[in-house]
Amino acid sequence: SLATAGAMRVAGLLLAWALLGAAASQQCQPAGPGGVLRFSDRHAEIRVPALHRVPSPLDPLYGLVRSCLDLIQQNPLPTELLRTALNDPGSVRTSQVVQYELGYVVCAAVALLFTVAVPVAGMCFCYCRSRRRCGGRLRAHRRSLGCRRRCLLACLSFTSLVILVSVTCALVTSQRVKAQMEPGLGAVPSTLRTLRQHLANVPQGVQMVVDKFEVPRKQIISDLGGLSRSVGLSIHAQLKAVTYEALADLQDRAGDLQTSLHHLQIVHRTARALAAARAELEPALRERRRRVVALLDDPRCTSCASVLGRAQGLQLGADYGKVPSVEKVLKALAGLPRSDFAEMIRQGNGTFNSIPELAVERMAQLIQDLRGDLARTAEKVQSIADGFPLPDYTRPVSEALGKAERRSQPYLREAERFERYRWIAGTVLCSIILLIVACNVTGMALGAYGLSKREDPSDYECRGEAGAKFLLVGVGLAFLFSWLLILLVFATFLVGGNIQTLVCRNWVNQEIYKFIDTPGNLPPSMNLTRQLNLRRDSNLSSAYRECKSGAGLWEVLQLDSSYDLDEHLRAPQYTADFQKRLGDFTAALGDVRLLRSEGRQDLETFARSGVDEVDYGRFQEEMKNPVVQSSLPGLARNLEGLQKMQRNSTVAGRLAAEARALWHMQNSTVQSQEALVAKLGESIQFLSRLAPHLKERVRRTLATTASVEARLPLQAQQILRQ
Q: Which residue ranges make up each domain of the chain?
């Protein structure tokens, strides 16, 4: 009975394991450095329920039953006998069946012997009892009689206890078998229906997966919405450093040109002014020296000899007529700058900063075309669901499952009726056994009580007599119904034992699958490989193993050879037009002109003008010399000091007059020349610092500007494609 219940419970799950071991859809894992698209989890919504027997304290008893069955039936799966029985039932020989069922034949012989022997023994006992030859007579009290009664009481008590425990186990086991048979029988059509529903939902599942293309499509449309401006901003952000650096460098060179031209003009004017002032100062200074020397040589001049040497050294110093002329350089730079560098830089900066707006304008048609390609891609993806061949393979399986469900209904009803009758018969017989135990217990209790109340144990006592009658009733019931119980036990043992040893045991070791997969074992009407639409080179064993290891229907049905799934799921065939349009796209974002031709000519002329060829060291050497060798203020102060020392008023007056003349020459002529020399020094210092690096800086500026102008469109196009 236990084996029968287990077999019926797992029978409904066989096809579930064979077909849907891994029916749950798997989650796609997108890769890549970009953002991850989130798809909703699409696992199978229809689940095949798994039935499990709850462990109980009777598990050791079940193990004992299985051990007994393994001992009784030690033969392997009778493949030859099953092949003959399935293909040609009329040719099955009884000797083959008896040979395979030899253990059960022995059990049947024992059961038959018990069935015959027990009623015969019961009738013999009744006959003897009626002849008063089997007890019922009063015996003389002897010491051995009490010992015999106690021994019989102990044996009967032990026997009743064993019967009580056994019948309790039988009742509990029968009830649990019934509780497991009901869901097991219901699981067969339920599982088959669930499998058919799952197979029917496969096309819907494929469509749901295809519908998930809406996730990347919406993301792409969202990205395309701000793509053009985003691309423009990306181009601007990646190129602004080199562009702004080139514009700043160009602005510096324009400043160098303007400042150099200004300082060259100062040098030219100042050098000419200093040369003219020197020529004008020379006769006046010579005359002043002659008069001062003559005055100091006058014998009337007291203490004048100490200043005479200083007066004799009164002569001109720096001669700016000897410095190099910059007139040639000024002639080369005449008319420069011919272009407005400030406006040119402003326009270049504005053009570069307008790249985001230009990208939006130039990419508008591309965005529209990409959206059209995306719509066509969605149609191609939909073609996957439209041309998916899985329903062509699952339809025969679904039909086979429907046929199996219809054909299983009569057998399931018969099994249910058999189980109901078995449970009723078992409950009734177990109740009778309980009644027998109750009669035994009552009889022993009354007998013991009656014996305890008699003064003479050999006297007759009604309570003892009643106990004896209860014991006789128990014996009679045992003789009447025990053979029925043994027949019920044998029937359930025969059916359940064969299911356990023939089906369950060979199912666990997969001998059944090998038998099914062997060609010729099953008749054409029972060819499961063909009914389940498996390929000829596949079998039920391999399908079962694949499903149990986690494979899906695609691998189990081996559809790769008839439908190249990898080819249909290869993304480039759906995105080729999209990628080609992106790859072929060229956006003329406009020429960013940082330096026009006239500006370039101005800088080239500036570099060739000879600013770096002027000997600014000569200027610096002349500027080290003073305008007048001797200090006019110092000599004037010396004359003023000598005036105070003179006793001759005429000499004193002349010394005072000469001192005033020297102060006038210093303030009117020499100071103005010294101011020009200081101004000249500032210009010479700037030009001397600029000149050595002028050509290199101009060359680098022109090369950088040209490189940026040439690379800017190419880099912008490359960034746009990326």
A: 248-341+597-721
